[in-house]
Design brief:
about 40% helix; binds aspartic acid; alpha/beta; about 20% strand; VC0802-like; binds magnesium ion; eight-stranded mixed sheet; 15 helices; 2 domains; binds adenosine-5'-diphosphate; about 475 residues; Carbamate kinase
Length: about 475
C-alpha cells in the first residue's frame, strides 16, 4: 500500500505541560510507525500571550519586567524538559537550543526597552519564541519513545510576504523549500516537528501568520508537501454545533464541508483559524479535528462536500470582539459615491469587513469590523468624509462596540425555506433584539447582529430551535 503522508498539528493545550507533551509524542510516534508524519506544534498554552505582554512592557522601557517573563518561561520549559526526559545526558542535546532561543528573547526585549519602540517586526520576533521553545521539547519527547525526530523552524520552510502579524504564504516558494528540507528526513524515517505560527520573507525576516495561526501553518505545509490528510489535534472532540463554553448541549459534528467549516471559522469558532482551509481546497486534502486528550474518538472530518444532515442548520457561532460602524444621515442619498468611498477607505487601512447592511432608504450604511481595526477605520473615514461632515451631507460616523455577530451555518440551508423565519421567531420569543441582519449569497450562512450581552441566550435559543443537540424534531 502507498505510504500516506499526514501533517498533524498540536495546539497549545496539547503541549501545555510535560504530561500533555508525552501524550502528543505518543500520538506522533504511533502515527509515524505506520506512515510518514510531519508534526506542527504551537507554543505551550498561555506562552504567546505572556510573550506579547513582555514585548509591551519592554516598549514602555521596562526591561526588568520583560526579562522576568523570559526567566519564568526559562523555568517552565526547563521543568518540562526534566520531567519529560529523565536521563541528564539526554538534556544536553535539547537544553542548548532552548538557551539560545531564550537568549535571543532577552536581547530582543532589551533592544525594545532601549529604543522604547516595538516595531511589528520585533513583536513578531518576540511572540514567536514560544513555538521555537516547544518544538525542541516535543522532538525530544518523540525521540525518548525510540523514534528519530528533529525540531525544525518554519522560517526554513514557509515563505511569506512581509505583512507582520498576519503574513500570507507564497505557496510556490514554500513548496520548493518544504520539499527540499522535509522529504529527505521523511525518507530516512525521521519525524520532523515544525514550529507553527511562523514563516519568513524571501530575505529571511521572521513573520507570524496571526494569532491562532498554527492551524494555518499545518494546512500550508499539508498543501506544500502533498499530504494525504491534515489532523488538527486540540482540546475538544471536533467541530461542535456551537462553542461548548457557551452552549452546554453542543455536540460533535462527524462530517462537515470546507465551506461550512470556513464560515464557522470566519465568524469566530476559535477551533479553526479563519484561513485554515484556504491552502487545502484546491487539492481537496481532508482535514480532521481531533481531541489529543481522547485520541480514541474519531473527531470531525472536514471534506470538500461534507454530508447532508437534512434540517439545514449545522452549527452556530458568535464573534464578540467586533465593532459596528455606521456612516449616515439624510444627506447621503444625494452622495452617489458614499458606499464606494467608505469601502475604499476600509481597504486602505486593511480592515477586514465582516458584515455589511444598508437600509433601503440609504440613510445609513452599517458595517462591522474587528474591534482591533475599529479606531483606525473610523479615523480614516472621518478624514475621507471631513468635507461632507462639515457641510452636513454626512451627519454622523458612529461606532458601537457593545455588539456581537451570531452566524447560523449550514450548506443545506440553500433551498430550505423558513430557516430565517424560525431563527428570528425563536429569538423574538426570548426577547433578543436584532440590530441588523445579513444573509450571504451562498445561503450557507445567516448572520445577525445583537447586543453582546445577549449572545449566550441567542446561541442557546437557536441551538434548541434547530434541535442541534440531537433531540427529536
Ligand atoms: P488550540 O490551542 O488547540 O489551537 P483553541 O483554543 O485555539 O485550541 O481552539 C479550541 C477551542 O475552540 C475549544 O476549546 C472551544 O472552546 C473553542 N470553540 C469555539 N467554537 C467551537 C466549535 N464550534 N467547536 C469546537 N470548539 C469550539
Ligand atoms: N501560539 C500562537 C498563538 O497563541 C499560535 C497558535 O497557537 O496557533 O496565537
Ligand atoms: Mg487555536
Amino acid at each position: 500500500m502507498k505510504a500516506r503522508l499526514q501533517v498533524m498539528k498540536f495546539g497549545g493545550t496539547s503541549v501545555g505541560d510535560a504530561s500533555c507533551i508525552a501524550r502528543t509524542a505518543q500520538i506522533i510516534a504511533n502515527a509515524a510507525k505506520e506512515n510518514p508524519c510531519i508534526a506542527v506544534v504551537s507554543a505551550m498554552s498561555g506562552v504567546t500571550n505572556r510573550l506579547i505582554e513582555a514585548a509591551k512592557k519592554a516598549e514602555l522601557g521596562n526591561a526588568g519586567e520583560a526579562g522576568a517573563v523570559i526567566d519564568a518561561l526559562r523555568k517552565q520549559h526547563e521543568i518540562t524538559l526534566t520531567s519529560l526526559i529523565p536521563r541528564e545526558e539526554e538534556h544536553a542535546r535539547t537544553r542548548p537550543r532552548l538557551e539560545e532561543v531564550l537568549a535571543e528573547g532577552r536581547r530582543l526585549c532589551e533592544g525594545t526597552a532601549l529604543l522604547r519602540e516595538l516595531t511589528p517586526r520585533a513583536l513578531d520576533a518576540i511572540s514567536s519564541l514560544g513555538e521555537r521553545l516547544s518544538a525542541p521539547l516535543v522532538a525530544a519527547a518523540v525521540k525518548e519513545l525510540g523514534l528519530p525526530s528533529e525540531a525544525i523552524e518554519a522560517t526554513e520552510l514557509i515563505v511569506t510576504d512581509s505583512f507582520h502579524g498576519g503574513a500570507e504564504p507564497q505557496m510556490e516558494l514554500t513548496r520548493a523549500k518544504s520539499q527540499a528540507r522535509l522529504r529527505p528526513l521523511l525518507e530516512k524515517g525521521i519525524a520532523p516537528v515544525v514550529t507553527g505560527f511562523i514563516g519568513a520573507t524571501t530575505e529571511g525576516q521572521l513573520t507570524t501568520l496571526g494569532r491562532g495561526g498554527s492551524d494555518y501553518s499545518a494546512t500550508i505545509l499539508g498543501a506544500a508537501m502533498d499530504a494525504d490528510e491534515v489532523i488538527i489535534w486540540t482540546d475538544v472532540d471536533g467541530v461542535l454545533t456551537a462553542d461548548p463554553r457557551l452552549v452546554a448541549e453542543a455536540r460533535t459534528i462527524p462530517v462537515i464541508s470546507y465551506r461550512e467549516a470556513a464560515e464557522l471559522a470566519y465568524f469566530g469558532a476559535k477551533v479553526l483559524h479563519p484561513k485554515t482551509l484556504n491552502p487545502v481546497v484546491q487539492a481537496a486534502i481532508p482535514v480532521w479535528i481531533r481531541n489529543s486528550f481522547t485520541p480514541e474518538k474519531p473527531g470531525t472530518k472536514i471534506t470538500p462536500e461534507g454530508r447532508s444532515i437534512g434540517g439545514g442548520v449545522k452549527a452556530l457561532t458568535a464573534i464578540r470582539d467586533v465593532t459596528l460602524i455606521s456612516v449616515g444621515g439624510p444627506g447621503i442619498v444625494g452622495l452617489p459615491d458614499v458606499v464606494g468611498r467608505t469601502f475604499s477607505t476600509t481597504a486602505e487601512v486593511r480592515a477586514n469587513v465582516l458584515l455589511i447592511s444598508q437600509s433601503s432608504s440609504q440613510n445609513d450604511i452599517c458595517f462591522i469590523v474587528s474591534t482591533v481595526d475599529a479606531q483606525r477605520t473610523v479615523e480614516a473615514l472621518r478624514k475621507e468624509f471631513a468635507h461632507d461632515l462639515a457641510h452636513h451631507k454626512v451627519e454622523h460616523i458612529t461606532v458601537d462596540s457593545n455588539i456581537a455577530i451570531v452566524a447560523v451555518v449550514g450548506e443545506n440551508m440553500r433551498g430550505t425555506p423558513g430557516i430565517a423565519g424560525r431563527t428570528f421567531n425563536a429569538l423574538g420569543r426570548d426577547n433578543v433584539n436584532l440590530i441588523a441582519i445579513a444573509q450571504g449569497s451562498s445561503e450557507s450562512n445567516i448572520s445577525f447582529v445583537i447586543d453582546k450581552n445577549a449572545v449566550k441566550t441567542a446561541l442557546n435559543t437557536t441551538h434548541r430551535e434547530f434541535h442541534l443537540d440531537g433531540s427529536p424534531n
